[in-house]
Amino acid sequence: MNLKRRWYDNHDKATQAFEILQKLDNESKKRLSKDLIEIIRQIKELHREEEEPELSLGIERVLGLYQQSVNERRWYDKNDELKYALKTMSTLPTEDFLNIMEGLSVSLDN
User: Fold this and answer.
1) Residue 29, Cα to own-chain centre: how many angstroms?
2) What would the mean pLDDT of 10-39 be, rounded to a whole number?
3) 86: which residues sit within 8 A by CB, 6+ positions away?
4) Residues 57-109: pLDDT tens digits?
């Protein structure tokens, strides 16, 4: 039985992106985090303009955020910029989150 314990494990592209991110050097993680934060900011701004933005994060991501703030044992918790970017990204609607993860997995895999 394969238990998917992390909030991003239910999506293959997200898991792939996280595996690639983990292998980056700290400076690359920092630069990428700044770009991610800007992309997330722009997506959130677009959703503010919508009449009925998606409200639910999903229980897995809510629990993941809670566990992250309690434990802070994950590899990305050691990089403040990346931790902030991923925590903020996890609050996006699922479709936006998955689009970013797919983009990361494709662009970083090259």
Assistant:
1) 13
2) 91
3) 36, 76
4) 555 555 555 555 555 677 888 888 998 898 888 888 888 988 999 998 888 77
Residue 19 contacts residue 11 (beta carbons within 8 Å): no
Gap between the Cα atoms of 14 and 46, Å rounded: 22
Residues 6+ positions from 13 with CB-CB distance below 8 Å = 98, 101, 102, 105
79 to 34, 75, 83: CA distances (angstroms)? 12, 8, 6
Asked whether 65 and 90 are in contact (CB, 8 A), the reply is yes
Q: What are the tokens at 110?
A: 């090259």
Polymer length of the chain: 110
Global pTM value: 0.72
| Phi-psi label, residue 58: left if phi above 0, alpha if psi -120 to 50, beta otherwise | left
What torsion, rounded to 10 degrees, do the Cα atoms 53, 37, 67, 101 define? 80
Please tell me the distance from the alpha carbon of residue 106 to that of residue 81, in angstroms, as a whole number: 21
